[in-house]
Amino acid sequence: MAKTIFITGASSGIGKATAILFANHGWNVAATMRNPQNETELAQYPSIKVYALDVTQPESVSQAVEQALADWQQIDVLLNNAGYGLAGPLETASEEKIMDQFNTNVFGVMRTIRALLPNFREAGGGTIINVTSIGGLVGLPFNSIYHATKFGLDGLSESLNYELRPFGIRVKIVAPGGVITDFATRSLKRTVDGPSVYDASLEKVFAAFGKNSANYSTAEQIAEVIYRAATDDTDQIRYVAGQDAQATYGAWKSMSNEDFFAMINQRFGLSE
Ligand SMILES: NC(=O)c1ccc[n+]([C@@H]2O[C@H](COP(=O)([O-])OP(=O)(O)OC[C@H]3O[C@@H](n4cnc5c(N)ncnc54)[C@H](OP(=O)(O)O)[C@@H]3O)[C@@H](O)[C@H]2O)c1
């Protein structure tokens, strides 16, 4: 029998590429998104059904889970992909922007997991894959709030894996580096709109992020890593995805903190 994956944030980027990849591998796909009325491409796949889901709205999460279970009876993999970046200095962030970032990137993930766990337990298993970021393993400048959400998801996933393993449920994370999607354009939010005392460093950091984009992955490449995490039947928890992310993570693990810190300062033009 075909397996089923439930994906959040399937309207674009990694979520959409993953929906198409799994459908092409013969899976049923519950592709959820905030505005399903705008979606035309995924609806053309007979094994993809599109559902409305905003991860910040608890009723929307439970309704989408109910509808998907009515259609497919069982979900085998939950992909928590919905998320966005909030970039800029912590000091200039409004309380509302900080709350929104955690509501989407962290509390949204908790909501979908809690909504699907009864089905996973009754079925005797399942896999939860949380899309984090290299910024959920290594800190980079001027992304402190975003990193806090992704480091948070990393800890959530590792702890939860112990809790759920006795029920046959695995929790994994996929941590991409830069990916060419809407992430850095229409989806990105900033903590500061006008001038601030951080301008000199901030400009250098944003310019450096732009310059490094030659090494970025495509959404399809990250979807392949997600497919591996969903199907390799191993207890591997972390999948660092993309050449840039692997290089950064490798350096962070092999270098002293002092040397790594100096390298990152230099890469982002922050050295004295
Ligand atoms: N691209 C990168 O460089 C990169 C690197 C590391 C990690 N990531 C992570 O990868 C994931 C996917 O991002 P992407 O690169 O594919 O960017 P993207 O193209 O901007 O996709 C983000 C998706 O999340 C959805 N979303 C945002 N808020 C939502 C909410 N409240 N409820 C439901 N869906 C919501 C968006 O929906 P709408 O269409 O409605 O806005 C969109 O479908 C994110 O978790 C991101 O943090 C991305």
Automatic annotation (TrEMBL):
Record-linked InterPro entries: NAD(P)-bd_dom_sf, SDR_fam, SDR_oxidoreductase
Keywords of this entry: Oxidoreductase
Keyword Oxidoreductase found: yes
Molecular functions per Gene Ontology: oxidoreductase activity
CDD domains reported for this sequence: 17beta-HSD-like_SDR_c
SUPFAM superfamilies in the record: NAD(P)-binding Rossmann-fold domains
Superkingdom of source: Bacteria
Pfam hit, one: adh_short
Sequence similarity: Belongs to the short-chain dehydrogenases/reductases (SDR) family.
Protein name according to UniProt: Short-chain dehydrogenase/reductase SDR
Taxonomic source organism: Spirosoma linguale (strain ATCC 33905 / DSM 74 / LMG 10896 / Claus 1)
Lineage, broadest ranks: Bacteria, Pseudomonadati, Bacteroidota, Cytophagia, Cytophagales
